[in-house]
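Hey L., structure's done. Input below.
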Amino acid sequence: MSATVWKYDVPLGFDCDRELPRGARVVHVAAQHPESAESVQFWAEVDTTQPMETRQFFIAGTGHPVRPEAIYLGTAIVCDGELVWHLYEVPR
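Output:
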């Protein structure tokens, strides 16, 4: 395995497809720019020898509905704690 950590951006407001190497494992979720409420980033440990696959992610705010099949990945706090975003993946 050739392990590397890659960063991905998920914008607020809609489902977001991202291409990751198969088997990639999300290791951290945060707002790289916490002064902005526009997106959340996640970092994934990837095996660069694996083929790419499309995975779907979305952000839900605290108190917003979450689909029952969604898998929680982590939380990011932005705008000095005024907003809290939760990152989910939709399994395919």
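Residues 3-90 form one domain. The chain has one domain: 3-90.

-- N.
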